[in-house]
Design a protein that fits this description.
single chain; alpha/beta; six-stranded parallel sheet; 40% helix; 20% strand; binds adenosine monophosphate
Length: 280
């Protein structure tokens, strides 16, 4: 397994692989890797000759300084896990390597970026789009793998690839959960013991949404579940929304859409967690 910190070395290595006829699967991450990330790597290995993973905590997608400062980092452990998972290349750039000068690109994703995470984290998706665009240009993968855990991010990345006509196939990978249902996340390791014990309530609310979908009015279900997620002193609800899976716009009635997803963001203590579930 190669570890490169520079764009030039990474491109040279991948150019050679391409000349050798190898297909390249790419998994972008911010490190602090868990089984959710490794499942993306496993899918990428299944489909491609060579798997490249980037480990880069992208400062411009954080709209909260404390979240950036406290974001877990552990490159040694990450590299071990990726080696074991059969990764061929880790791209581990510095901030200066990625942004020698500030990048002022402004993307317009229309309605996709004004709801849910976009509403609560202004600038977040623009920062995501900038870094993913740069990473795709460096790695030039045949396929790139993203978790459904970040549902809105996936919609934004698919829109970016369409808009920029980038020759990469975006593969959606299922959410990997802990045994008690909590979606795996690098941020989970910041939860205190009592907070960790409460956190599976997020999954339970999504399960309840799925069980009641189509049986009670949409707005009533949102109200009931929002109340449940706000009902503990350790948890504070950001949003609980039921939306069309393509447009991400809220639905009013169950027959407004064929593809419906429930999405939520909840502060558990100081840690902001997101999760979602396709309904029906
Ligand atoms: P991150 O390092 O949090 O930026 O995540 C890197 C990639 O891993 C993104 O495509 C995430 O959606 C994906 N990912 C994170 N957590 C999970 C999970 N629990 N299950 C599946 N994919 C995940």
């Amino acid at each position: 397994m190669q570890i490169y910190k520079t764009i030039n070395e990474t491109k040279a290595f991948l150019n050679k692989a391409r000349l050798d006829g190898k297909t390249i699967g790419f998994v972008p991450t911010m490190g602090a890797l868990h089984q959710g990330h490794i499942s993306l790597v496993d899918d990428a290995r299944r489909d491609n000759d060579l798997v490249a993973v980037s480990v880069f905590v992208n400062p411009i997608q954080f709209n909260n300084k404390k979240d950036l400062e406290t974001y877990p980092r552990n490159f040694e452990a990450d590299a071990q896990k990726l080696k074991q998972a059969g990764v061929g290349l880790i791209f581990y750039p510095s901030q200066e390597e990625m942004y020698p000068v500030p990048d002022s690109t402004h993307y317009d994703f229309g309605d996709l970026e004004h709801v849910m995470e976009g509403r609560f984290r202004p600038g977040h998706f623009n920062g995501v789009a900038i870094v993913v665009h740069k990473l795709f240009e460096i790695i030039q993968p045949d396929k790139a793998y993203f978790g459904q855990k970040d549902f809105q991010q996936l919609a934004i990345i698919k829109a970016l690839v369409r808009k920029e006509k980038m020759p990469v196939e975006i593969i959606t990978c299922p959410i990997i959960r802990e045994a008690d249902g909590l979606a795996m996340s690098s941020r989970n390791r910041r939860l205190k013991t009592d907070e960790r014990a409460e956190a599976p309530k997020i999954f339970h609310a999504l399960q309840e949404a799925n069980a009641k979908a189509g049986k009670v009015p949409v707005d009533e279900l949102i109200q009931t579940l929002s109340k449940k997620l706000n009902n503990s002193k350790l948890m504070q609800l950001g949003y609980f929304e039921i939306v069309d899976a393509e447009t991400l716009q809220a639905i009013n009635n169950w027959n407004d859409s064929q593809n419906i997803v429930a999405c939520t963001a909840v502060f558990v203590g100081e840690v902001r967690l997101i999760d979602n579930m396709m309904l029906f």
